[in-house]
Predict the 3D structure of the following.
Amino acid sequence: MTQPADAEIVQFDNVGLRYGTGKEVLTDISFTLYPGSFYFLTGASGAGKTSLLKLLYLAQRPSRGLIRMFGTDAITLPRNRLPGFRRRLGVVFQDFRLVPHLSAFDNVALPLRVAGVSEREIAGAVTDMLDWVGLGDRQHARPATLSGGEQQRVAIARAVIGRPDMLVADEPTGNVDPDMAVKLLRLFEALNRLGTTVVVATHDIHLIRQVPESLIMRLDKGRLSDPTGALRYPPRRAARPASPPLPGIVGQ
Amino acid sequence: MTALANLTSGWRARIAGSDARLLPQARLSGPMPWVIAIMVALTVIAAASGLALRNAASAARAGVEGGVTVQVVNADPAERGRQAQEALRLLSGENDVASAHMVPQSELDRLLEPWLGAHVGDEVDALPIPALIDVRMKGVVSAGRLEELRKRLAGASPSARIDAQSEWLAPVFGTIQALQWLAGALIAMLAAATAAAVLLASRNALGANRGTIEVVHMLGGTDAQIARIVQRSMGFDAAAGGLAGLLLGLVALLFLARQFAALESGAVMAGALGWSDWAIVALVPVAGVVLAVVTARITVLRALRRIL
């Protein structure tokens, strides 16, 4: 983490988003995300969760408002600086977006290869990570031969392997059984203890209850509600025990 | 087609490293190596033809560059002979004349034999054959110098007509030069067609892999990294195609060379390619690879600029 402990990692100020000439899908979104916090983004289908996440992982520019990320104005960010910002993010896409012609191993290795990590380092880290998500024996399988749940675990492994500053996950446990969902959540928590800010979009209230110290962001028809003010004025957090080393995470 | 594509994908796997695995190489390849092979083969033939024409023109120009012919046209053989000797004496005394000699009657007979039969000069005095003096000047004969000589000969040998040999061949040189320009234009058009083929293939590769490219972008991949994958693929295709095209072109050139050699013409033989010419021909596929790589890079970078 390069910024001071209390500096905001993301700041949205009156952000609006519309696609083309349609009506706004996000309206007057304002919130601040702090380093090392754990957020759940909830809301009904069509409330704008995926659109908000797209703004968070810099796949979309807003129609209006201000977005600061890692202390920099993300809206006017020159194109050549985007890759550097994106390498600090881990993204679990709702539709997984695995590269179809690559094996599970190569999909998980992709962010490390993009970042120029050596093949020797990649081999150990990716194998450990795939073992941890229960896919050690499916390393060479192509996405088309994996089940939905297995694909989702590959997508999660790909998002976390580079130990991002912020993890953004869109319905990351939608296709896995409850036991694996909890296990993956523990992975997110462990990563969070290492300092990664985690934002998980989910409908699953049971999943939210698994992380009692998490903060809730609720979207309703494109507007963000913050009834407790916890998003704008987060409570000071007690010191938490250090996380044990995580399998396969590069750069711990 | 499959064999050449397999060959190029094999190179890629060994040389390109981990980047090459980001996009499926088969989709990038397709018929490109063969398109480039045909373009390179045609370019090799056009380039070799242009160089051969240049060599033939240079040899011909060197042969006639300092050549001047003096004809003494007079019906009276005695007067013709006298004026010819006077002209020869005058020309031999000039500083810039390397050599001057009277063309012997036997040579004139040999030249005229195909049209007028044998011993024309001996038997038919009624048919006045001009006396010819072959002059070699030191260096190129300018129009001014030719006019100066004409004036000087006018006094001593009023029946003399003087011409630079290069003037007779001017239309031939003009034609050769036009053919050289044509070869150059053909090479330029083939280069443009190759660039267009690479541009289309690069756009096609981007379109077919858009989803993957978006993911690589989202994971922090740079435009240069993505461009490198495509340009490397095009480079391999161009290298394989260029090699095949060079071989095809050389086979065609050897065939043409045999046909021309059978003519046993000095002018044609003078067009033979030297080592430096063959080196230029061998550089055609290298230029093809550079053109393909640069075109692919520019195309991909420009296209990626439209994606966030």
Summary: Chain B touches chain A through 20 residues (CB under 8 Å). Strands of chain B lie at 67-72, 97-102, 131-137, 160-164. Confidence is low (pLDDT under 50) at residues 4-16 of chain B. Residues 66-139 of chain B form one domain.
